[in-house]
Amino acid sequence: MRKTIIAGNWKMNKLISEAKVLVQELKELVSGITEIEIVVCPVYTSLYVVSQEIKGSNIKLGAQDCFWEESGAYTGEVSPVMLKDVGVEFVVLGHSERRQYFCETDEWVNKKTKKAIEIGLRPIVCVGEKLEEREAGKTFSIIEKQLEGGLGNLSPEEIKKVVIAYEPVWAIGTGKTATPEQAQEVHKFIRNWLSEKFGDEIAEGITIQYGGSVKPGNAKDLLSQKDIDGALVGGASLKAQDFAQIIKAGL
Ligand code: 13P
Predict the structure, then answer these.
(1) Among 14, 218, 233, which is best to mutate for testing ligand 1, by the most ligand atoms less than 8 A from CB?
(2) What is the pLDDT along the chain (251 residues), one digit of tens a residue?
(3) Could you tell me which of 67, 84, 150, 159 has the fewest CB atoms within 10 Å of its CB?
(4) Residues of the domain holding 154
(5) Which of the following is catalytic: 97, 104, 129, 167?
(6) Is 242 touching ligand 1 by the criterion CB < 6 Å?
(7) How many domains does the chain have?
(8) Residue 187 annotated in active site
(9) Which CATH number belongs to the domain containing residue 171 in this structure?
(10) Which of 11, 64, 129 is the pocket-test mutation for ligand 1 (most atoms within 8 Å of CB)?
């Protein structure tokens, strides 16, 4: 059966000293939880210190992006090999903020995903529609395009390593959450796409997270949906108490 994965995307927040405190608090609050995979994704500058803090704990390390080359003249980029070197196991790819502000395309997401897997990282690939796309009835076609472009050419062995995060853009940082039913509908659509492409067995094994204003108060309802297998949490993951409550809602 697929594992519930709850990841905190800290986005561009927290200095090194703050990251250290946050993960120390979280470690205490979630110690002993083994049923859920717990991941924190700090900014690059805090990866090392957080990796040291979580040694021997049940918290895993994630990054928020990576490039598709291993090294070379790519000023400003960080490669999956370098992430692995610092102890990273997961990497968020194709987040809507990267698509929106940094012109990230499905083609780039695909190249990054394939390289990350080759290096031994587990990509958390984000898909999601904008408000105007939802209102125009285009939700499923947008999600399908992102899935095809980002993941369509993966091999069965590659797709098994992927976590998919459904993050409706209109729910990110807005306080507006998709209802559990709205989210479940899209998660089911994603699982059907996976089934058609890779077969039922693989599709059933893939973790699909929901992201977008997940809070302690709504986490249980979302996580109890059949095809919602975890959460990718932004704002609420910056507070250890809130993030721990969300994790416990998945038990
Ligand atoms: P919020 O939880 O702040 O809405 O952010 C969601 C998100 O983008 C996680 O990647």
Answers:
(1) 233
(2) 799 999 999 999 999 999 999 999 999 999 999 999 999 999 999 999 999 999 999 999 999 999 999 999 999 999 999 999 999 999 999 999 999 999 999 999 999 999 999 999 999 999 999 999 999 999 999 999 999 999 999 999 999 999 999 999 999 999 888 999 999 999 999 999 999 999 999 999 999 999 999 999 999 999 999 999 999 999 999 999 999 999 999 99
(3) 84
(4) 4-249
(5) 167
(6) no
(7) 1
(8) no
(9) 3.20.20.70
(10) 11
